[in-house]
Amino acid sequence: MAGIYLHIPFCKQACTYCDFHFSTNLSTQNEVLALMREELRIRTNELQDEKIDTIYFGGGTPSIIGADEIAMLIRSIADHYHLSEKLEVTLEANPDDIEIQKLRSWKDAGINRLSIGVQSLNDDILQWMNRSHNSIQAKSAIDLALEQGYETSTIDLIYGMPEISEQEWNNTLKFVSGCGINHVSAYNLTVEDGTVLAHQIKKGSRVPPDDLTGSLHYGILVDQLEADDWDHYEVSNFAKAGFRSKHNSNYWSRIPYVGVGPGAHSFANNIRRWNVSSNQHYLKKFLEGSYFETEQLTRTDRINEIIMLGLRTANGIDTIELEAEGFSIFHEHEDYVKKSIDNGMMEWDENHLRTTKKGMYFADRIASDLFLVS
Questions:
Q1: Domains of the chain, with CATH numbers?
Q2: CA-CA distance, 77 to 272, in Å (whole number)?
Q3: pLDDT of the chain, 374 residues: tens digit per residue
Q4: How do the residues of the chain divide into helix, strand and coil, expressed in percent and rounded to 5?
Q5: What are phi and psi of 270, to 5 degrees?
Q6: How far apart are CA 318 and CA 112, in angstroms?
Q7: Dihedral pair phi/psi, residue 32, rounded to 5°
């Protein structure tokens, strides 16, 4: 199995916290999308006839392009790749783009799952984030999506803002549990270089997020959703039974995928590839074949990826997979692993080493301590 990721590099406006590649200049949209269809055609050999079981439209804001363009991209994939009979096709959508006719058109185009960028139900926070929707639109978008049959949809939330009280965060999560959605991705606010948020903090016009608030909100998130029978299957992801995201799960399992479009990343045959994060350079360099860079993963890279991605999931690290790379985590880090198990941060079970509920918030930090240093 394998996946296709399509990076739609256009947005109506720039969110304060976002460092993904996008442009608010839509003048090159038709040219970029046409080259993305061509990129799909010329890269079929990278997946070696693997069946495609996930297609993911990310961005940027994929919901601002026409349903006809979405349909053409999906047809291009169908023309050149082998599709699974149980194909998951996700479209990231802003709440203000979601209305009945679009929902029907997206479904006709082949979309069967939405990732709705709610982010917050606090209108002041949404305004500060420079989001193009408000809380009423967010709630309405969820209702409309479910009414139109998008039962497997997910919503995104951001936490860790000092302005959000424990009670308000609790109320948000109560809404999430009762709104009918079956998947949630919740992310701690981080400060990325080059963003408006980073600039605001540097100027002193905004208080930076702190670890204490992020940890507090995360604890509430885990406790409340698990109490409501959500499956906490990755650090930031929760699903009702049977509704885990195939796209996300495949990524954490190092399943190959081809990423097309400006700023898109790919992984196949232990090679990571990333396209230039510039719409203009993508257009200019495409015909030259110089619109991307590649990296062959070394043994150290592979081992560290298995550790990093494994510790973020409920399944944990497959120690047999590590041993196939000639690496024993118990031999290399015996004292650290024993100490982490003793203090309740990790647990060991049937060839899998995983973080506990207590340790999952610190999964990235624990992973870095376990990395093989070449």
A1: 2-252 (3.20.20.70), 299-370 (1.10.10.920)
A2: 21
A3: 999 999 999 999 999 999 999 999 999 999 999 999 999 999 999 998 899 999 999 999 999 999 999 999 999 999 999 999 999 999 999 999 999 999 999 999 999 999 999 999 999 999 999 999 999 999 999 999 999 999 999 999 999 998 999 999 999 999 999 999 999 999 999 999 999 999 999 999 998 999 899 999 999 999 999 999 999 999 999 999 999 999 999 999 999 999 999 999 999 999 999 999 999 999 999 989 999 999 999 999 999 999 999 999 999 999 999 999 999 999 999 999 999 999 999 999 889 999 999 999 999 999 999 999 87
A4: 45, 25, 35
A5: 60, 30
A6: 31
A7: -65, -45
Helix, strand or coil, per DSSP, at residue 99: coil
SS3 346: strand
Q: Which residue carries 């026409």 as its tokens?
A: 66
- With H, G, I as helix, E, B as strand and everything else as coil, classify residue 37: helix
Query: Which residue do the tokens 């139900």 mark?
Result: 121
Alpha carbon distance 240, 176 (integer Å): 12
Place of tokens 């839509």: 26
CB 221 within 8 A of CB 159: yes
108-133 burial, b at 16+ Cβ within 10 Å, e below that, comes to ebbbbbbbbbbbbbbeebbebbebbb
The neighbour count for residue 46, using CB atoms within 10 Å, is 17
Beta strands in the chain (DSSP E): 2-8, 51-59, 82-93, 113-119, 154-159, 183-188, 231-234, 237-239, 257-260, 265-268, 271-275, 292-296, 317-318, 346-349, 352-355
> What would the two tokens of residue 15 be?
């969110």
- Helix H or strand E encompassing 281: helix 279-285
